[in-house]
Design goal:
The chain is mostly helical and about 130 residues long. It has a domain of about 55 residues. The chain is built from 6 helices and no strands.
């Protein structure tokens, strides 16, 4: 087996970082956006972490809505998110979140994640310990 034991669930990036720092885990996954936020807003926490490997870039997780939300409301939310890049009053929020803008994506943009999940399944990663 690849790992002697697993720890978790560690359901947030911050919790992964805390587990590694506390010695509860030797390594843990931390997506680049979460890592960037930690470096920007908690540099003392970030300084206790060392990147040991990276993967090729993939799309960040999508923003999702409940299945019962009306299409018109979803369209309104999309329009508001897309327009947020031009809203001067949101500049401090965008800056704090390290976001320039939102873009529309196609489900095909996320195909790489499905391919990687299937590869992990073939390697037995759902059954680490």
């Amino acid at each position: 087996r690849l790992f002697a034991a697993t720890v978790g669930p560690l359901s947030t990036p911050r919790r992964v970082a805390e587990a590694v720092i506390a010695g509860e885990a030797d390594v843990g996954p931390l997506d680049s956006y979460a890592h960037d936020l930690i470096r920007a807003h908690e540099p003392e926490l970030a300084a206790q972490l060392a990147t040991i490997a990276t993967t090729t870039p993939t799309p960040i997780p999508p923003l999702v809505a409940a299945p019962g939300i009306a299409i018109a409301d979803i369209d309104h939310l999309r329009a508001a998110l897309l327009a947020s890049a031009e809203a001067d009053e949101l500049r401090p929020v965008r800056s704090a979140l390290l976001l320039d803008r939102f873009v529309l994506v196609d489900s095909e943009d996320y195909a790489v994640l499905l391919e990687r999940a299937r590869a992990a399944d073939r390697l037995g990663y759902p059954r680490l310990a």
